[in-house]
């Protein structure tokens, strides 16, 4: 027993010298193990008391050691929140200082602590993998607010290898509106390309997620934006181009802004919407040369190799400068958006477009109340978003719904094709009221909508993808934007069919909605698709067609233009609408037989009132007999040719009958 007591005193001496619990136990048990069996004593309770003292010291010492190590570990894992609060916006962080005293870094105590910390870190790392976070709640001792931890958790989750996890993280970010400014900036600076584009395409995203565009390079000395645009245009290949591109390119490069203004005056209409916004001969349009350059660049940007040239020569920065400079000129901004949208069709340019700062501009434009600006930005972002969008939207193809990322499954497509002098948005606006509409009323979609398919139909049928198509048209050659361009119905239909197929049209059930000449294009597109095996899905998935005053048998506009000098030289589009046009008669006969064979559902509307063309001419553009396809209901409506596709209000017969046809025709598809 004396040997046991001496060993006990020996261990206590070592513990006073900061021996660790491990060393203490090892030495004690080793001494006990080497002792010879003690002599038997008659005092039984004395042995029990000594055993209790020994085990008690072990329990007490172990408890003190574990308490000390837990507190030390907690201290090492606790953030200095005061420092964090002071330095949130700094570009550096504070870390705990490490003692330079080597005596503290060696010894049995240090090694034991090191091994214990290593084991705890393994537990934390394992829990992190399981719980998708750097720390599990059970083990976390980080002294920060929950939403601050969420910032980093979501950022890590957005870069996960699991696509579903990434999408969920972006959605959670976009729905967060209680963060501080610095937290949005953390995401903006640390997120990857996919996350940034996903946030831009999320409806509820805060604009603080997007950093301002980087500073633009200074213009060259003695140079102007007009001159920079010309140099950019001159750097692009000028051979093997179609006549229209050659025309605008040569015009922009050869003429000065003064000569262009004097030569063309205000008669020209740019932007691709074909709307008759002509000015008088005496007025000089603003930024004329820039418009011609942008028109040429729009055409060039449809060629992939030319997009590479535009990017390499600083075109993204130059277009951004021009966009910011002309905030009060929607036409210029629209053409710039068309160019960026075309460049976004090339995936190898996505990182460059993002780095140049265009995503922040597009995200802001998406929230604009102006449908044209928002739709242009939506098209570009959809082309950039390869995470959730497989389709590619080429120039002139705009998605009205869904413009943002959505969890709503899309079960069918409804396509809107405008007619002569129409546009992707203006054609489908609500019928103008007689009173002057203020900007406030225009912004109030409950009272007036600038595009009823986007406002009314999208709400009534959320499972639809709604697409509006745009192409250039003109009444006469003197109003044609590209004098050398001659696009027949056959040419246009093939071009539109190719673009629509790239947008995924044909992959799900389709209903076509057309106005005037747009109906002829729909008929021609379907006939052409029936001849091409790769387009067979377009035919197989076509469920029905709505025709708003489509001149199946010709229009009086073509007859009138021959004898009236108002139109001067009728365009090819107008000539093809003539009643005695062989091409028009063949198209009608072929399609009627084809539609009957495919059992397409058809609904026809026709105007009963004459239309004013200019201030002097009054004409019944499409008579009832011409609007009769030969199948489907034919419904006369007391409106003129321009308003046949513009309901006065949501509960008007024109819209309600259209909605009924769409719902009934797609009933089975929408139920599945």
From TrEMBL:
Which GO biological process entries does UniProt record here? phospholipid biosynthetic process
The answer, when asked if Ribonucleoprotein is one of the entry's keywords, is: no
The listed locations are: Endoplasmic reticulum; Mitochondrion membrane
What GO cellular-component annotations does this UniProt entry give?
endoplasmic reticulum; mitochondrial membrane
Membrane topology is: Single-pass membrane protein
Gene3D superfamilies xrefs: alpha/beta hydrolase (3.40.50.1820), Leucine-rich Repeat Variant (1.25.10.10)
**Keywords assigned by UniProt, alphabetized:** Endoplasmic reticulum, Lipid biosynthesis, Lipid metabolism, Membrane, Mitochondrion, Phospholipid biosynthesis, Phospholipid metabolism, Transmembrane, Transmembrane helix
Functionally, this protein is described as follows:
Facilitates the transport of serine from the cytosol to the mitochondria by interacting with and stabilizing Sideroflexin-1 (SFXN1), a mitochondrial serine transporter, playing a fundamental role in the one-carbon cycle responsible for the synthesis of nucleotides needed for mitochondrial DNA replication. Plays an important role in the phosphatidylglycerol (PG) remodeling that is essential for both mitochondrial function and intracellular cholesterol trafficking.
Q: Which family does it belong to?
A: Belongs to the SERAC1 family.
Q: Report the protein name in the record.
A: Protein SERAC1
Organism for this UniProt entry: Neomonachus schauinslandi (Hawaiian monk seal)
């Amino acid at each position: 027993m004396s040997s046991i007591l001496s060993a006990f005193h020996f261990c206590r001496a070592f513990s006073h010298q900061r021996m660790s619990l491990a060393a203490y136990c090892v030495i004690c048990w080793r001494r006990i193990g080497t002792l010879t069996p003690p002599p038997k004593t008659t005092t039984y309770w004395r042995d029990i008391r000594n055993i209790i003292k020994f085990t008690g010291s072990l329990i007490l010492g172990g408890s003190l050691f574990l308490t000390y190590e837990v507190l030390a570990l907690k201290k090492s894992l606790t953030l200095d929140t005061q420092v964090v609060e002071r330095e949130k916006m700094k570009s550096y962080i504070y870390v705990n200082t490490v003692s330079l005293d080597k005596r503290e870094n060696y010894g049995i105590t240090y090694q034991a602590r090191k091994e214990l910390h290593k084991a705890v870190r393994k537990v934390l790392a394992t829990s992190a993998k399981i719980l998708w976070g750097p720390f599990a709640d059970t083990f976390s001792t980080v002294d920060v607010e929950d939403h601050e931890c969420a910032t980093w958790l979501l950022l890590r989750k957005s870069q996960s290898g699991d696509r579903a996890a990434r999408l969920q993280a972006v959605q959670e970010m976009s729905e967060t509106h209680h963060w501080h400014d610095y937290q949005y900036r953390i995401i903006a600076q640390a997120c990857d390309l996919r996350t940034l584009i996903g946030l831009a395409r999320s409806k509820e995203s805060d604009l603080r997620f997007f950093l301002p565009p980087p500073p633009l390079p200074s213009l060259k000395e003695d140079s102007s934006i007009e001159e920079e645009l010309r140099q950019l245009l001159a750097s692009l290949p000028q051979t093997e181009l179609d006549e229209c591109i050659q025309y605008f390119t040569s015009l922009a490069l050869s003429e000065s802004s003064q000569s262009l203004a004097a030569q063309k005056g205000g008669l020209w209409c740019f932007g691709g919407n074909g709307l008759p916004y002509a000015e008088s001969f005496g007025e000089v349009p603003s930024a004329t040369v820039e418009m011609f350059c942008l028109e040429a660049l729009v055409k060039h940007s449809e060629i992939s190799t030319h997009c590479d040239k535009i990017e390499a020569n600083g075109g993204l920065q130059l277009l951004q400068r021009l966009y910011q400079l002309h905030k009060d000129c929607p036409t210029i901004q629209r053409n710039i958006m068309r160019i960026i949208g075309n460049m976004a069709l090339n995936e190898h340019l996505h990182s460059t477009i993002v780095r140049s700062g265009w995503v922040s501009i597009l995200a802001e434009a998406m929230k604009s109340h102006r449908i044209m600006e928002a739709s242009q930005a939506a098209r570009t972002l959809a082309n950039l978003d390869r995470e959730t969008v497989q389709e590619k939207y080429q120039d002139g193809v705009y998605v009205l719904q869904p413009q943002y990322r959505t969890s709503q499954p899309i079960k069918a497509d409804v396509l809107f094709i405008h007619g002569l002098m129409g546009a992707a948005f203006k054609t489908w606006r609500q019928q103008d009221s007689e009173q002057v509409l203020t900007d406030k009323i225009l912004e109030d979609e409950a009272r007036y909508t600038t595009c009823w398919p986007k406002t009314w139909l999208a709400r009534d049928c959320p499972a639809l993808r709604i697409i509006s198509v745009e192409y250039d048209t003109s009444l006469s050659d003197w109003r044609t934007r590209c004098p050398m361009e001659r696009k027949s119905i056959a040419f246009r239909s093939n071009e539109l069919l190719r673009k629509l197929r790239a947008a995924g049209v044909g992959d799900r059930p389709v209903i076509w909605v057309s106005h005037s000449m747009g109906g002829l294009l729909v008929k021609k597109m379907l006939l052409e698709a029936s001849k091409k095996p790769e387009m067979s899905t377009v035919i197989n998935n076509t469920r029905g067609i709505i025709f708003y005053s489509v001149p199946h048998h010709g229009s009086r506009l073509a007859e009138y233009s021959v004898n009236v000098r108002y139109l001067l030289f009728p365009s090819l589009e107008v000539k093809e609408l003539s009643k005695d046009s062989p091409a028009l008669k063949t198209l009608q006969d072929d399609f009627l037989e084809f539609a009957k064979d495919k059992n397409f559902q058809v609904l026809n509307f026709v105007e009963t009132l004459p239309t004013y063309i200019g201030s002097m001419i009054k004409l019944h553009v499409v008579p009832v007999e011409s609007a009769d396809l030969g199948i489907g209901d034919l419904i006369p409506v007391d409106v003129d040719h321009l308003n046949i596709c513009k309901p006065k209000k949501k509960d008007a017969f024109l819209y309600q009958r259209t909605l009924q046809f769409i719902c009934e025709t797609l009933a089975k598809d929408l139920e599945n």
